[in-house]
TrEMBL record, chain B:
Component of the MCM2-7 complex. This is DNA replication licensing factor MCM4. Residues 406-614 form the MCM C-terminal AAA(+) ATPase domain. It comes from the Eukaryota. Belongs to the MCM family. GO terms for cellular component: MCM complex; nucleus. GO terms for molecular function: ATP binding; ATP hydrolysis activity; single-stranded DNA binding; single-stranded DNA helicase activity.
Length: 634, 812
């Protein structure tokens, strides 16, 4: 058996050994054993921290064909591909035939015997994965810091987040891979077959797009959010690919493949677009670029094992159901005190408004925990109205939230943004991929909609579509992806927080009007002070853990309390049928749930129910007040 | 014989190795191999000349769709000499079973079997549209051959299911070795054809195109085992390429002596003659393009249809190559069933390197296309696509249908998260099933609407939208739009220029897309009048007429409409009629079969049940809920099955009951001098009764169906058509927009006004305000301005007076 670190540095050796060993005993199920072997290894204490992560180690520091991990979101699923699972090679000099394993590899050895009867064709699936969109920098830093991976050229490597841009990386890799360096000048019109007439039509088809993209030379990595950085990856899945869904977040352990031959394939195409092989002509140049980008830019990862991520909070242990519950229950005790801290902090941030702060906490720990046919349960979209518009208050608020939640995204709802951004992912049939949009987010991402940025003006078609998409997201927690000939609905689980001056134009589960108790003379200074203010690192971490844990807790309502709640509802309606509708009861139940969880209680108590009712009463009375003051509020 | 044949066609670049020679472009490996035992016809028969009849005389057209009959590597072939000339050899050595190398196909036997199939196969129950006009009790395919001899289109489509039912072994061979078996079929059919019709002249020899292979139905289930097999998949065309000319035969001419020679493309490669056979010049031959032979080829991308996909995944795509006359048969957006051979070709990393990317490129060589949505535009055949149900499923569904409370069960399974509103759910359930389609076009009345339209109105926040969402998710052809967000164009159809081809294309909107389905329209009241007017036609005639950009057509929009509307005053005003509350034109309202109010019942027992229901939503686990209600999938299948296979007819008894019910309805009002039912209500009743019979899987509409239809209709009416002033149900509220009492009142005021004016004597013009004041002074009851206006309008209609601005003038 290989020594401790061999399985990280050269996992293929392990696999090949197993493959060779299995040849004598058919039906040995070596594939399952191989996967099992790596799973076992990773279970060992801290073993997973030794594996270098694509998220925080620049690609060119990673050893090809070594075991790496990647924390990612499945952005697109490509078509399944058939590959040579087992094939035979013939040595040209000795004519000796050798059986080889093609699994976990992109490129075969030389001298493949295509007519061998021992060839086994197998199927695998390719996922296009991107780093979790909107992942905040503290998460990335924290993950990087906990890594104990030995990266080979360690003398020059300082684990810092300041990575060089990818253009640089690409250049760098070009240097490394000398052979195809001269490809650029070659891509002139004097390709050898130029004067052949019969491929005119093909050239027509392929040349047009290549002209425009060669100049830009940068490949669109298709990140859901603009301005994202990080590697994207083609993950090859060998088994059970049906159990993965689009937008799942995973930690993939797999074998890194950056064979320059893969890039050569792509380069060759560009260099000689006129000489397209007819079998390849089933793909346009565009498609070719998307499906086989240079490996230096988009590495291939052959998945050995993938753990679905319950959360991406580095401060919590990786969840594996057994010890997970132990961890959660251990943290229950101090939740109340952390909550009090968080409440006072938020109260401060929200200009002394404790009620809004309460609701903000509830919002941040909400999650869609179940769906009843079309109805998502547990969502809690909050609309904070009455936010001061001065001195970028909303941006500051977002920065504070950003410090607390693992992933978030700020969307200023300016007309410009609404009319021009692509929020909904759309299928591009030319390139045969799903072009991502800002609403393709991982679960439990906080989406911060800033409606104070919205000015008067006209929404065009895109704008209307975007607003509709946001409305659908909030009401049904789903996004209808645009497949041009039809739409396809993908459920999601995104926490939407809307800040606005008056009631938002978007629907929301709950609207709270912020009543500022303190009116700081200099808002900028006030916010600046709380931002740094005493939130020491450990303090901050406590809050971060708190918010993630509260979301993971289980919750139940006892038989007895069900009865009490029902009675309560009937009584309330008896007094005044207008006072509470089914809708209100829905909200009240969610508030009670979140309130209990925020205090670390996993079942509803009478006390909590009353407190939830009280909160709601305060909120509605404030709304009425506000309506009276403003008069013409809807 | 080894069936494990993994022989891959090498796809070789003929990148030039000698620099002084023109490089030959590579071509797909799909040349018919002339040396194969399966080749027939003479290779030179392509040369022009008068077509002669007979097998030998008619040129064979190459079948790029099948590719070459793959030759095993030479060594292997020689080690197995038996295969060389299958058909003839097998007759010679009758004792020895000779088969094509790598398969278990014996050409002679196979041919014989297929000929027997063609001559004998009868399918009396056939209902395919291809077979219309044929005598079903005669051998089907012989009639088709006759057709070919008349029409001259040398293509014979063969339904694989027929082959299977006739000879399972032959079918297995066809599926497993299409490349060998289909040419054998071709041979068989041509022999048979020219034997029967020795004098007929065809442009080409007949080609057999099998379709409807059962092997695979879904793109997702394609796997390596399907390679080189005959498969049928369904999907949607998303992109088609331009036409790709593919060289079949290269023409070379010597530059020195002008000697010319032809070279066939062999597995993608052209063996370029190095030496001229005439003058022995080396490397003196050049390729002459315009004398080479090309065939047409087109790349088509097909995407999985949305119905076949598991939730949360993206659709798969597959590349399909169409050859020769199949090129341009399909357009992007078409739903098609494709029958073809599944291929895998290894990819090369670099033509100059010998290691290959360990991945195969896969595609399908199309043999047959069948559009599945073709008939929707013509409306000839209903339910073109039939959902396939397994025996087991049908059994479960039938069992379910046998239960006495199936109606209640299904209705409670509908949107279980929405509480109560039993009648509304029942109404929607009946809508999902729909009535029976009747065609009276022979007698000149055209189609009768079979779909039930439902309008839900009520207070905001009564989960109307949720119901709509549920229905939209339940039915396969559902569309969901919001009145606010849709324009008339979005609902109907619009004409668009395709950016690529500059072709004018008709793009269909929600209503047309939901043909045979349900169109859910939320915020119906917010719709612009213009948009609404479109619905008039759709909701009764069920067609859409379009006259735009030179395209004039009538599209089918046999959709049921499920609409939701909010009251104008945001809260339902019980003192007003439905019309007044939602402000929709009565012409539109009368087209709804059922109008339901979703109001807060404000009753304690209801509250309690509601509370219990809601709370349980929040604490029951997923599994617990599942147990209580029918699975959505079962419900969906149940509905699909009933819609496809059940078409109930009225029984004598039921018709009587219906007549009585209608007469009763009319009687109710007649006592007070008002009409309480119109034929439209009778039609509604019939539809509802039929739908209810469908729920029971009954082919006959019986009394219980009528009773339920009556009950539901009455319930809906009670809610929506009760005159708030009298408390009676008054259908005229919905049909004329006014309750009878209101109309009477209007008339009275008009008469009073007329009298008053007449009493004033000859004054040609009067002030509006003064007239109103006078009338108010005269009348005992309060007269509102609206009432006064209406009275004036009524008099204006009588041509008694005109109103201009603030002045009222008498006429003549």
């Amino acid at each position: 058996m290989p020594s401790t670190h061999d399985w990280i540095d050269s996992p293929l050796v392990v696999i090949e050994d197993m493959f060779a060993a299995s040849q004598n005993s058919p039906n040995s199920g070596w594939e399952a054993k191989a996967v099992e072997f790596f799973k076992e290894r990773l279970k060992e204490k801290d073993a997973h921290t030794w594996v270098p992560s694509l998220n925080d180690v620049p690609l060119h520091y990673l050893k090809p064909n070594s075991l790496v991990k990647f924390r990612c979101l499945i952005q697109d699923m490509f078509d399944p591909e058939f590959y040579m699972g087992v094939y035979e090679t013939v040595d040209s000099s000795t004519k000796a035939k050798t059986l080889r394993c093609g699994k976990y590899k992109d490129v075969t050895e030389c001298g493949v015997d295509f007519s061998s009867t021992n060839t086994v064709t197998a199927e695998r699936q390719t996922f296009y994965c991107v780093p979790i969109p909107g992942e905040n920098s503290w998460v990335k830093d924290s993950f990087a810091a906990s890594s104990q991976a030995r990266v080979i050229p360690s003398t020059s490597y300082v684990p810092s987040r300041q990575k060089r841009s990818y253009e640089e990386d690409e250049e760098m890799d070009d240097m490394d891979a000398q052979p195809q360096k001269q490809r650029e000048p070659q891509s002139g019109p004097q390709s050898p077959s130029e004067h052949l007439g019969n491929n005119d039509s093909k050239r027509l088809e392929t040349e047009a797009p290549s002209g425009s993209t060669v100049s830009s030379s940068h490949i669109n990595l298709n990140f859901p959010l603009p301005g994202e950085k990080g590697p994207s990856c083609l993950v090859k899945v060998y088994e059970n690919w049906d159990c993965f869904k689009l937008n799942d977040t995973l930690e993939v352990y797999g074998i890194l493949s950056v064979s320059p031959a893969l890039s050569a394939l792509a380069d060759e195409k560009e260099a000689s677009s006129g000489v397209l092989d007819p079998t390849e002509s089933m793909e346009t140049a565009e498609e070719q670029r998307v499906h086989s980008p240079p490996a230096s830019l988009v590495p291939r990862l052959h998945m050995l094992y993938a753990a679905p991520l319950q959360h991406n909070n580095p401060l919590l242990p990786v969840i594996s159901s057994a010890d997970d519950s132990a961890f959660l229950s251990s943290s229950l005790g101090e939740m109340a005190s952390v909550r009090a801290e968080l409440l006072s902090y938020f109260t401060h941030v929200l200009l002394g408004d404790a009620l809004s702060a309460e609701y903000l906490i509830l919002h941040l720990i909400s999650t869609v925990y179940s769906r009843r046919d079309v109805l998502p349960l547990g969502k809690f979209t909050l609309n904070l109205s009455g936010c001061p518009t001065v001195s970028s208050y909303t941006e500051r608020l977002y920065q504070i939230i950003q410090q607390l939640v693992p992933s978030s995204y700020y969307l200023g709802m300016s007309l410009q943004n609404m009319n021009h951004m692509q929020l909904v992912p759309k299928k591009d049939y030319v390139a045969n991929r799903l072009v991502s949009g800002a609403l393709q987010l991982a679960k439990n991402t906080s989406l911060f909609l800033d409606e104070t940025k919205l000015e008067q003006g006209q929404l065009d078609t895109t704008g209307v579509r975007n607003v509709t998409a946001l409305g659908n997201l909030i009401s049904w927690q789903k996004v209808d992806y645009d497949f041009s000939y039809h739409q396809m609905e993908f459920p999601c689980n995104i926490n939407v927080l809307i800040v606005s001056e008056a009631r938002s134009l978007l629907p929301s589960d709950c609207q709270v009007h912020v009543h500022s108790q303190v009116v700081p003379s200099d808002m900028e200074e006030y916010l600046g002070s709380i931002h740094i203010h005493s939130q020491a690192f450990s303090q901050l971490n406590k809050l971060r853990i708190y918010l993630s844990v509260a979301r993971l807790l289980d919750y139940s309502i006892s038989e007895e309390l069900t009865k009490a709640v029902e009675d309560d509802f009937v009584d309330m309606r008896k007094d005044d049928p207008q006072s509470i509708s089914a809708e209100d009861l829905h909200r009240l139940l969610v508030v009670a749930r979140l309130l209990s969880l925020s205090l670390g209680q996993t079942s509803l108590s009478r006390d909590m129910w009353l407190r939830a009712k009280d909160l709601e009463a305060q909120r509605t009375s404030r709304m009425e007040q506000h309506t009276c003051v403003n008069g013409n509020e809807p | 014989m080894s069936l494990n044949r993994h022989v891959f066609i090498l796809n070789v670049h003929l990148i030039n190795i000698c620099d002084n020679e023109p490089c030959l472009q590579t071509v797909q490996p799909n040349e018919v191999d002339m040396s194969s035992p399966l080749m027939y016809g003479t290779p030179s028969s392509r040369i022009e000349g008068t077509p002669r009849s007979g097998v030998r005389g008619t040129p064979a057209r190459q079948r790029p769709d099948l590719g070459s009959v793959r030759k095993a590597p030479q060594v292997d072939l020689q080690s197995e000499p038996s295969a060389a000339d299958g058909g003839a050899a097998s007759e010679a050595n009758a004792g020895q079973r000779l088969v094509i190398w790598g398969t278990d196909v014996n050409v002679g036997i196979c041919k014989e079997k297929f000929q027997r199939f063609l001559q004998r196969f009868i399918d009396p129950t056939s209902n395919e549209d291809e077979n219309s006009g044929l005598d079903l009790n005669e051998p089907l395919y012989m009639q088709k051959l006759e057709e070919i001899s008349v029409v001259g289109d040398p293509v014979l489509n063969v339904n694989c299911l027929h082959v299977q039912s006739f000879d399972a072994e032959l079918y297995r061979q066809l599926i497993s070795y299409p490349q060998e078996v289909i040419p054998t079929f071709d041979m068989a059919v041509n022999e048979l054809f020219f034997e029967r019709f020795p004098d007929s002249i065809l442009e080409f020899q007949i080609q057999v195109r099998p379709y409807n292979a059962l092997k695979t139905r879904n793109m997702r289930s394609l796997n390596p085992e399907d390679i080189d097999q005959l498969i049928t998949i369904s999907g949607m065309v998303i992109r088609t390429s331009q036409l790709i000319p593919e060289m079949q035969e290269a023409f070379f001419q010597c530059q020195v002596c002008a000697y010319s020679t032809r070279v066939e493309v062999d597995r993608g490669r052209i063996a370029e003659p190095a030496v001229c056979r005439n003058c022995n010049t080396t490397h003196g031959l050049t390729l002459v393009h315009n004398r080479s032979v090309f065939s047409d080829k087109q790349m088509i991308k097909v995407q999985e249809s949305p119905e076949d996909m598991p939730a949360g995944q993206t659709p798969h795509t597959t590349v399909v190559y169409a050859h020769n006359d199949l090129v341009d048969k399909v357009q992007p957006g078409d739903r098609v069933n494709i029958t073809g051979v599944y291929r895998a070709v290894p990819m090369r990393v670099n033509p100059r390197q010998s290691n290959v990317k360990a991945v195969y490129k896969t595609h399908i060589d199309a043999i047959h296309f069948r559009k599945t949505d073709e008939k929707r535009l013509h409306g000839v055949n209903e339910e073109a696509e039939q959902k396939l149900f397994t025996e087991d499923r049908v059994q479960t569904l039938k069992e379910l249908a046998g239960k006495p409370d199936v109606y209640e069960r299904l209705s409670s399974a509908l949107a279980p998260s929405i509480y109560e509103h039993e009648d509304i759910k029942k109404g929607i359930l009946l809508q999902l099933f729909g009535g029976t389609r009747k065609d009276f076009s022979q007698t000149g009345r055209g189609h009768f609407r079979a779909d039930v339209n439902i309008l839900l109105c009520g207070d905001p926040g009564t989960s109307k939208s949720q119901l709509l969402q549920y229905v939209y998710n339940l039915v396969p052809r559902g569309q969901y739009t919001s009145g606010k967000g849709s324009s008339a164009v979005g609902l109907t159809a619009y004409v668009m220029k395709d950016p690529e081809t500059r072709q004018v294309v008709l793009q269909t909107g929600a209503l047309v897309l939901s043909d045979n389905g349900i169109c859910c329209i939320d915020e119906f009241d917010k719709m612009s009048d213009n948009t609404r007017s479109v619905l008039h036609e759709v909701m009764e005639q069920q067609t859409l007429s379009i006259a735009k950009a030179g395209i004039i057509c009538q599209l089918n929009a046999r959709t049921a409409v499920l609409a939701a509307a909010n009251p104008v005053e945001s809260q339902w005003n019980p003192k007003k009629t439905t019309i007044e509350n939602i402000q929709l034109p009565h012409t539109l309202l009368s087209r709804f079969d059922l109008i339901f109010l979703m109001l807060d019942p404000q009753d304690e027992a209801y509250d309690r049940r509601l509370a219990h229901h809601l709370v349980s939503l929040y604490y029951q686990s997923e599994e617990q809920m599942e147990e209580e209600f029918l699975d959505m999938a079962v419900l969906r299948d149940y509905i699909a099955y009933a819609r496809t296979y059940i078409s109930p007819r009225l029984s004598e008894e039921a018709s009587q009951t219906l007549i009585e019910a209608y007469v009763d309805m009319r009687k109710i009002g007649s006592g007070r001098g008002m009409v309480s039912a119109y034929p439209r209500q009778l039609e509604s009743l019939i539809r509802l009764a039929e739908a209810h019979a469908k729920v029971r899987f009954s082919e006959k509409v019986e009394n219980i169906d009528v009773e339920e239809a009556k009950r539901l209709h009455r319930e809906a009416l009670k809610q929506s058509a009760t005159d708030p002033r009298t408390g009676f149900v008054d259908i005229s509220i919905l049909t004329t927009g006014m309750s009878l009492t209101a109309r009477k009142r209007k008339e009275e005021v008009a008469q009073a006004l007329k009298k008053m004016i007449q009493a004033k004597g000859k004054t040609p013009a009067m002030k509006y305000q003064q007239l109103l004041d006078d009338l108010r002074g005269q009348s005992e009851t309060a007269i509102t301005k609206e009432l006064f206006d209406e009275a004036l309008r009524a008099l204006a209609d009588e041509d008694y007076l005109t109103v201009t601005g603030k002045t009222v003038r008498l006429l003549a």
